[in-house]
Amino acid sequence: MKTRRVEPFRKPLIVPSARDGRTQIRFPMVAVLGYGGVGDRVTRRAVAGLPVQRASALATVYAPSTRGATFGSGDPARRVGTMIANYRVEAVVSSGGMGTVYLARHPSLPRRDALKILDGPLARDPRFRVRFMREADLAAGLHHPNIVAVYDRGDTPDGALWMAMEYVRGTDADVETGAGRMPPARAERIVSEVAMALDHLHRRNLLHRDVKPANILLSPGLPGEPERVVLADFGIARSCDDHYGLTRTGDVITTVAYASPELLQGWPLDARTDIYSLGCTLFHLLTGHAPFSDRPGLAAVMMAHIQHPPPRLSDYVAGLPAALDGVVATAMAKDPGDRYQTAGEFARAVRAALAVGCARGCGLRIPLPSMSIQPHHANPRRRRPPDRGRSHVSSGLAVPAGSP
């Protein structure tokens, strides 16, 4: 039986803090994780991500004691009716831990765009601002029907950062699963569309790093046409690498419920971290909840992603083809080398498993990977990530491998 050695998971130290009524959560030798915006039902239950501080070998997340706290300061509605870079702000679309998205009228064209505003201390950090602008420029160079278009970026007189994006009418996959799981055919089509977007990114040596249902927008199609599936929120506000004073060991902010083991442990990343997250997303679409969401608390969810075998779909949903258990287990393998190597390969496996309809049909056989996990107490300076042969991307939406 194949054995994988995994670095020991260390439970976080939770330290109450009088500062701003927040709780300090420290994760020794593990990448820092923030939780997504208030629209993410699964991750919202634990902690909303706010700016990360770095102190010696400890990584810290500050969790607000009140749900719905935003990355910026003040009431998000205060900007409604104002002008930002000649955009007239008309309404709040969403507000979460990393900023606010507004509906805004384009200054010259007869259309409305989505205007994302990031303010607060992190947005005022000079290094972060340079990083934001660079990654916004990279995002603006992406042209794909399954990727939200980025039109422009800049800053406001009060120091906030803004980005103008395509406004996608509709909802997201997280909201759509709020009342229960999706039909398999719809889940497969959504995953296939997202896989095309990810392969487009990966061919350009870019990573998304925060693939999850809340970042998959669903827009009604024209009569007789299927709904449009669009991948959004490329983690630009979550890009915290050495340009923000952090190390290259993988200190990031992401959504724990869908994060890969290598991301959580600070190993170098490549496209297969997004494939892991897409496997978690498929599990969510088919069951109505994220993998390991039954674990008690943030530390237990992290431990499960790092050390525990993926859950089986068949344990939660009756009637799905048994081959799907193997497909999800392969996408969520602990070692990136055991996963599908492209998002398209994963999507094709999902489609094939559903087409077969049962494990014995058409001779399809997708075995579950072996996952005997043995904790390994290694010298942290000698840690090596699994399968380092492929180029990797340092962090965020889009930083070409090898970029400073």
TrEMBL record:
Pfam families: Pkinase
Enzyme's top EC category: transferase
PROSITE patterns attached to this UniProt entry: PROTEIN_KINASE_DOM, PROTEIN_KINASE_ST
GO biological process terms held by the UniProt record: regulation of primary metabolic process
Location of region: Disordered: 370-404
Name this protein carries in UniProt: non-specific serine/threonine protein kinase
Phylogenetic lineage: Bacteria, Bacillati, Actinomycetota, Actinomycetes, Mycobacteriales
E.C. no: 2.7.11.1
Any GO molecular function: ATP binding
